[in-house]
Amino acid sequence: MGFVKCIKYVVFVVCIVSCKKQQTFTLVAEKEAVYLPLPQKVIAPLDNQMTKEKIALGKLLFFDPILSGEKNVACATCHHPKNGYTEFRDLSIGVNGKGFGADRKMVKMDSMLSFVKRNAHTILNTAFNGISETGKISIKKAPMFWDNRVESLETQALEPIKSLEEMRGFRIAEKAILDSIVLRLNSNKRYKELFKNVFDTKEIKATHLGKALATFERSLITPNSRFDQFLRGNDQVLSLSEKEGFKTFKRVGCANCHNGPMFSDYKLHTLGMVENEKLTSPDKGANNQFQFRTPTLRNLQFTAPYMHNGKFNSIKRVLEFYEEIAGKKVKNPNVAVKDLDTLINKVIITAKDINLIESFLNSLNDTDFDKEVPKSVPSKLPVGGDI
């Protein structure tokens, strides 16, 4: 397997000997950050192995509004294959919405059901969430969401169903929603047959639902971008500007956080990102410290707008933001300069670097993923919800 290394920090101890005494001092150079291609195969938990039948079941559930409180929203409503399993919106509109992607609108403007607080992550490659620079991954500990609040795809898959703004709505209480959804599935003859075939069970449970959804999500990988091909030894697949952009990407400090096969350290960082004015109160992120995890840089052509609240419509604007905060220009009045992540001090992006970095990031796109939408779902509801 090919790899690329970028200098980060390495400590050398140097001793100088004179006729009178020995002097010891430390030189701090940079450590090597390793870039590996995405794995071409997925590792699944021992208690949730992948089969074609389980993937197919998970896909039906993913597109079926039966999973939402008011039967009008599916997972695919905000994570649609036509939009790279995300959507072209800054903030999602869940149960109180109608329409597709950027054209989705609020149904009731005076409703307490407002926007979903954060930008929708793409489902592509979530099978590799938490993968380290060296390719190691703990699938049971894989971090999920912008604030890393839960671990594993099996757990993540059930969280949007419980969320008020996303899929639950007011009709069913949070503590009762999973039981209500499971009751619906057990009352559906087709789902009963499918779950029995996949899990060999007479009664569908919430754990079965989470495992089926997670298995479908785990099947959506894009391990053959031009950059992956480059790392595997095809030196001709990248243009000169893309290669130069990769060098620039590493040199200016992007690699401090955007490293490893997914171009993410999956850690939480405080950047002082400007707030989205659509929200009625500031999003304080993880630990109430305005911390958000480093997103993957793969398939950026599908994931605009960018940042945790979708405030930036272009990669250029994102890079300009990093240029600004490197100059101590904090746009969020709720975040003090002293609270910014210390790694920001190592970012040295200038205007002349931006085009080269953009060129390189284009090499991380891969359009080869499952884009087929089911013609129908077992509930007979509209496929993908009210879109």
Distance between the termini: 43 Å
Number of helices: 12
Content-based structural category = alpha+beta
Query: How many domains make up the coordinates?
Result: 2
Q: What percent strand? A: 5-15%
Highest-level CATH class of the largest domain: Mainly Alpha
Overall average residue pLDDT: 91
CATH topology of the largest domain: Cytochrome Bc1 Complex, Chain D, domain 2
Shape: globular
Description of the molecule:
- With 387 residues, the chain is an alpha+beta fold.
- It has helices at 52-63, 75-78, 153-156, 159-162, 164-168, 174-186, 189-199, 206-218, 226-231, 240-251, 315-326, 351-361, and strands at residues 4-17, 22-35, 97-98, 105-106, 143-144, 150-151, 268-270, 291-293.
- The radius of gyration is 23 Å and the shape is globular.
- It has a two-stranded antiparallel ribbon. Strands 3-4 form a two-stranded antiparallel ribbon.
- The chain has twelve helices and eight strands.
- The protein has two domains: 52-218, Cytochrome c-like domain (Cytochrome Bc1 Complex, Chain D, domain 2), CATH 1.10.760; 225-364, Cytochrome c-like domain (Cytochrome Bc1 Complex, Chain D, domain 2).
Helix/strand layout:
Layout lengths: L3 E14 L4 E14 L16 H12 L11 H4 L18 E2 L6 E2 L36 E2 L5 E2 L1 H4 L2 H4 L1 H5 L5 H13 L2 H11 L6 H13 L7 H6 L8 H12 L16 E3 L20 E3 L21 H12 L24 H11 L26
Antiparallel strand pairs: 1-2, 3-4, 5-6, 7-8
Helix pairs in contact: 1-8, 10-12, 11-12
